[in-house]
Amino acid sequence: MAETSQLAPRDAAWRDELRKAINAKERGAIPRVKMPELDPAYRVTCNEEVNQGLTMEQAQLEATRCLDCPKPTCMEGCPVSIDIPGFVKNIQRGDIAMAARVLKATSALPAVCGRVCPQEKQCESRCIYHKMKKEPVAIGYLERFASDYANEHDDEMAAGTAAPEKRGVKVAVVGSGPAGLSFAGDMIKRGYDVTVFEALHEIGGVLKYGIPEFRLPNSVVEKEIDSLRSQGVEFVKDCIIGKTLSMEQLEADGYKAVFVASGAGLPRFMGIPGENLIGIMSSNEYLTRINLMGAGQPGCDTPVLEGKSVAVIGGGNTAMDSVRTARRHGASRAMIIYRRSLEEMPARVEEVHHAQQEGVEFMTLYNPIEYIGDDKGHVKMVRLQHMQLGEPDESGRRSPVPIPGDILEVEVDEVIVSVGVSPNPLIPNAVHGLDVSRRGTIVVNDETMQSSIPTLYAGGDIVRGGATVILAMGDGRRAALAAHKALSAQS
Amino acid sequence: MFEVIEKEQFSPKVSKLIVNAPMIARSRRAGHFVIVRVGGGGERIPLTIADADPEQGTITLVVQNVGVSTEKICALNAGDSFTDVVGPLGQATTIPSGKTVVCCGGGVGVAPLLPIIKAMKTAGNKVISVLAARTKELIILENQVREHSDEVIIMTDDGSYGRKGLVTEGVEEVIKREKVDEVVTIGPAIMMKFVALLTKKYDIPTQCSLNTIMVDGTGMCGACRVTVDGKTKFVCIDGPEFDAHKVDFDEMIMRLKSYN
Questions:
Q1: Separation of alpha carbons A139 and A129, rounded Å
Q2: Which of B21, B110, B59, B48 is nearest to B239 (CA)?
């Protein structure tokens, strides 16, 4: 696999010239680019992507801001260690195809990461500009810019990429979400025969069923999957490992290693009275009906409830996705109900901001304690316990405590519960001798992602319980490296 | 890929389809179900596997036309294909041996009951099957059930075939007559509720198989949740079979009307 430093070496003459062309003070004086966005009043009427992407001029100017540090700390913040200055400087000099190649060398899904990664907590949080009290380089926007360019210029990208030599060794991937695709991308580049097994009828996992179109268009995901397919990755839909095919059958079919990335399965509920009333559902159900099944679109048979007064319980990105989806599906009142304050909310700042722009109400420091239904069993009201913040808990966040007797009743006709997920038990239940934690996650070595069964690796939510796209992808990368080492030692 | 090999019309609303699905045919056991989809915009619909032939690589589905999606399924003919068939899903039935078992099915519930009847008989149980329907035309799979049962009792609401009366009357007659170790019931939720009430009175362990609303069928969405023994369970991964005495049927019946 090409080392990133070979693609865009820092000591290359062109990069040296770029560094000398403008001094640091002038670079630092350029204001950080603003992402062009659709107008909030318009975007709640449709599913179009909110962030419109940078223009070439904007991207090159933003890339100019990057100081091309000798020790780029931004890279330490990236779970897949993208050569960030390498791709950014290629944007600055106008070689966008090369910028994309640098990205693709370490990330199977750069156009996805450029959209959904919490850059503000990762690469951008380590940007040297923070020390200078300036805004960080918009690495995420630039990543998206270069990857979108690549996806629109297939011919240019095809040139200069040589197919790796085939090893004739088969590896299997369980699940086609970000972890699985990342593993598949790395292994196909190393010359393995890679087959990805997906339980659903579409490839992409959470990128398809979970993240809405207005944040991550399916066409973007499809492009990334097509790219893997054209490199030779095989995809098998409608196939559940542990049910349709057993692990033993995979082994008998000649697969030498299996990477399990089966994702977070079971949505959590709170176990409060009335939670099984009609109109109360998990965010997984709500988003799957709309994103995967196309509910509400012409020609799609799957129904979804379209409430007028919708409460979404939780403060994560999935809660934001759900509440913003509800606004787009006819909710005149869409509320986030979160038991802590805005400050503790785990969702990305950008998502909270977009939700606020779209008219979402934030009812923080409230926790549902009961749902009340009408005579037909439809939810009509939620009873909320007012909370206040107490001492910090083990997560470091101040934990919410009820204010006795302070109860608020709110009329609702739909409730979306988005308080987390538990790992999918299908694989842990189906594999004998697999070491599984009490929480139901697969136990692996942190470095190699190898499980108690030497040929079985695992990553993503089935290991972490619930994480981000990029952490899942990092797992896929590490597992691929470890599997490659183990398999090449055998041959 | 998931081609319909053979189709038989049981009644105007009920069709039997034999579908090519080799991997599922090999790995499925009694009690398992599949999720099927017809067309690009089709819904994911759970259907219990009525039978399978691992050598031919086929599974048998029995479908009652009750809505948009089941209508599309029932409209498939030999040579047509499902867009997707995925499975086998759910937990397989626990089959005892050397017991006296009453298997009672209502309407199309007899289809998922058939593999359980077969497995019960093969495991050396005495199997008494009670089949019930509104009227004679809606009694399905009678011959296959007879083949694997020690005795078959037929009940129809209108008395047009077998005896006039509800399924519970047929079951109670057996219970009063001889020692019954276990009851298995599959059919409309309301029927299973009353079978459960009856067998609880006699303290006979009873399994039911639930057919709730599902989306993915793999534990991901929770649309299928039911309350069993006061706890929320997912039919797709914890079931579809549960202790009928512990299922909150009233809540289940209410939730089945979510999209009505």
A1: 12
A2: B48
Q: Give buried/exposed letters for B59-80 (b at 16+ CB in 10 A, else e).
A: bbbbbbbeeebbebbbebeeee
Asked if the Cβ–Cβ distance from B86 to A424 is below 8 Å, we say: no
Phi first, then psi, for residue B35 (nearest 5°) are -110, 130
Query: What is the reported pTM?
Result: 0.94
Closest CA to A462 of A264, A199, A220, A248: A264
Query: Which of chain A's residues have a Cβ under 8 Å away from the Cβ of B23?
Result: 239, 244-245
Look up residue A416 and give its two tokens: 């979306």
Using CA atoms, how far apart are residues B238 and B5, in angstroms rounded to an integer?
31
Query: With 0-12 CB in 10 A as exposed, 13-18 as middle and 19+ as buried, what is A203?
Result: buried
Residue indicated by tokens 């790395």: A186
The single-letter DSSP state of residue A37 is B
Sheet with A379-392: list strands edge to edge. A366-373, A379-392, A398-411
**pLDDT value of residue A15:** 94
ipTM for the predicted complex: 0.94
**8 Å CB contact of B232 and A271:** yes
Option in B43, B220, B258 nearest A301 (CB): B43
Average pLDDT over residues A304-331: 96
> For the sheet containing B126-133, what is the strand order?
B163-164, B151-156, B126-133, B100-106, B182-186, B206-209, B241-243
Query: Structure tokens of A254?
Result: 């000649």
Q: What angle do CA A220, A224, A228 make, to 5 degrees?
A: 165
Do the Cβ atoms of A267 and B221 come within 8 Å? yes
A275: left (phi over 0), alpha (psi -120 to 50) or beta: alpha
**Distance separating alpha carbons of residues A418 and A319, to the nearest angstrom:** 5
Which residue matches tokens 């809660």? A319
List of residues 6+ apart from A273 with CB closer than 8 A: A370, A371
Q: Are B83 and A201 in contact (CB < 8 Å)? A: yes
Query: Rounded mean pLDDT of B234-260?
Result: 94
Which secondary structure element, helix H or strand E, spans residue B106, and what is its range? Answer: strand B100-106
Residue A265 backbone dihedrals phi, psi, to 5 degrees: -90, -80
pLDDT over 80 at A35, yes or no: yes
Task: Give A74: exposed, middle or buried? Use CB within 10 Å, 0-12, 13-18, 19+.
Answer: buried
> CA neighbours within 13 Å on the CB side: how many for A340?
19
Count of CB atoms situated within 10 Å of the CB of A106: 24
The average confidence (pLDDT) of chain B is: 95
Phi, psi of A329 (to 5 degrees): -110, 35
Q: How does B7-43 read in b/e, with b if 16+ C-beta sit within 10 Å?
A: beebbebbbbbbbbbebbbbbbebbbbbbbbbeebbb
Closest CA to A110 of A68, A71, A80: A80
- CB distance from B220 to chain A under 8 Å? yes
- CA–CA distance from B1 to each of A76, B28, B56 (Å)? 47, 18, 14
The residue type found at B188 is P
